[in-house]
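Module 6 notes. Inverse folding takes a fixed backbone as the condition and produces residue identities as the prediction. Think of it as a translation problem where the source language is geometry and the target language is the twenty amino acids. Below is one complete input and output pair. Work through it position by position during the lab.
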């Protein structure tokens, strides 16, 4: 059969130009500049409409180097606020906005690599078929599309709305407040309960990003109610300004389930699976950046593997990741199941009193045995009986009802 004029061939086809797909393309470019890589993204821009933040210690030197070329904001520390105390930390913190992700990739990748506004309709081990019917055949196909809902995973949700404002005067906030849980603990309308906090990033002397976040039982974002709460938070702190951007998210917080069955559901024979869809997430914070960086670099080192082998290797890597993040799923079960919604903040209030190194390893998904023991020992902030019940419970399947976000 002869191919049509529009059909092409590439060595590696990456489907989905979000965080994971974009970073894999970048790592391949750095390690194998000669390799033909095609990055196919359905949206207009790479990275969608996100803001990704991370601590300096989330990444090793190689990981930091991969992100070095992106324009981003860096702070030398951050703080947290709880009803009982405020605390400052001196660990560096970073934030990258998706337009800067898009711009960095367009600068560093070859023009032939990036294909935006192209939806992949079908993927298989030999290539992809696009929405215009053209075919790109490939030695290796990597599926980095959005995470799909799963009936095999259980948990709750992290629901948030962020607002980016320009203030008429200098706002005077120097460091990010990554958790201001001194706010009312009311739940978003219609949800069973939540742990609520506000996240504040001083992006410039007259620029603030303020995000209202809930650890909620239901995947429901009531935009009007949450927007009103952001207004009230700004008012209460004497802040105001013109809205220049924003984001919303409803992310799964995984507390349990059968990951192997989940992988079977996601698997397309011979296609490698990465990103959030592949399971490379922090179960409790829903963040993926440290794992997306790590996976991109690992793929780049083994980029000459045939597609089927890369697929099997990544699947095994995701299972290892699942195994090593079990502790965070257990904490998530305690958060959702053991605490009365209005009392959930106590779990974090206690956690943030601990040693800064332990807190950093927690966010990086690298807690050691001593950290885990330390997190679990001492006077528990929630009922032990309810905690045991929560750990034994099955949780709710992580399937959002349509139209809720
Ligand atoms: C608003 C928001 C803020 C967040 N903040 C953080 C944060 O601070 N830190 C953090 O680590 N995580 C954060 N997250 C979690 C976030 O989901 C992940 O970190 C990250 O974006 C997941 O990367 P990914 O590449 O796996 O998926 P995505 O970034 O979702 O990318 C998937 C891409 O695939 C594309 N796609 C889907 N189907 C097709 C198709 N058929 N053909 C072509 N392209 C397709 C989509 O358009 C999308 O661009 C945030 C999430 C949201 C929604």
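Target side of the pair, the amino acids:
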């Amino acid at each position: 059969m002869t191919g049509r004029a529009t059909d092409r061939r590439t060595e590696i086809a990456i489907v989905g130009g979000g965080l994971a797909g974009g970073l894999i393309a970048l790592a391949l470019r750095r390690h194998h500049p000669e390799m033909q890589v095609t990055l196919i993204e359905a949206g207009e821009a790479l990275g969608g409409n996100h803001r990704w933040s991370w601590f300096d210690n989330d990444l090793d030197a190689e990981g930091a180097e991969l992100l070095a070329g992106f324009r981003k904001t860096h702070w030398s520390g951050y703080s947290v606020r709880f009803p009982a105390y405020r605390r400052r930390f001196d660990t560096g913190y970073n934030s990258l906005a998706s337009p800067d992700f898009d711009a960095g990739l367009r600068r560093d990748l070859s023009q032939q690599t990036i294909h935006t506004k192209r939806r992949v309709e079908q993927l298989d081990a030999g290539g992809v078929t696009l929405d215009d019917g053209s075919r790109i055949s490939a030695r290796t196909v990597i599926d980095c599309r959005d995470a799909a809902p799963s009936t095999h995973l259980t948990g709750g949700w992290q629901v948030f709305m962020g607002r980016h404002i320009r203030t008429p005067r200098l706002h005077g906030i120097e460091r990010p407040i990554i958790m201001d849980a001194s706010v009312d603990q009311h739940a978003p309308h219609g949800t069973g309960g939540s742990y609520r906090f506000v996240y504040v990033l001083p992006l410039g002397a007259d620029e603030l990003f303020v995000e209202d976040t809930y650890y909620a039982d239901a995947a429901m974002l009531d935009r009007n109610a949450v927007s009103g709460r952001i207004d009230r938070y700004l008012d209460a702190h004497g802040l105001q300004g013109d809205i220049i951007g924003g984001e919303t998210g409803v992310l799964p917080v995984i507390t349990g389930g059968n990951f192997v069955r989940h992988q079977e559901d996601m698997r397309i024979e011979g296609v490698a699976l990465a990103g959030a869809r592949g399971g490379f997430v922090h179960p409790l914070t829903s963040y993926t950046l440290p794992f997306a960086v790590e996976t991109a670099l690992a793929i780049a080192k083994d980029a000459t593997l045939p597609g089927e082998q890369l697929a099997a290797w990544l699947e095994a890597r995701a299972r290892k990741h699942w195994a090593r993040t079990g502790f965070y799923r257990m904490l998530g079960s305690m958060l959702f199941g053991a605490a009365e919604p209005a009392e959930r903040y106590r779990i974090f209030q206690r956690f943030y009193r601990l040693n800064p190194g332990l807190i950093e390893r927690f966010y990086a998904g690298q807690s050691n045995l001593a950290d885990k023991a330390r997190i679990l020992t001492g006077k528990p902030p929630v009922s032990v009986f309810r905690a045991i019940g929560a750990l034994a419970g099955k949780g709710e399947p992580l399937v959002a009802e349509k139209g809720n976000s």
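Reference fact for the lab report: The pocket of flavin-adenine dinucleotide is lined by residues 15-21, 40-43, 48, 50-53, 119-120, 144-146, 247, 249, 251, 275-277, 286-289 (CB under 6 Å).
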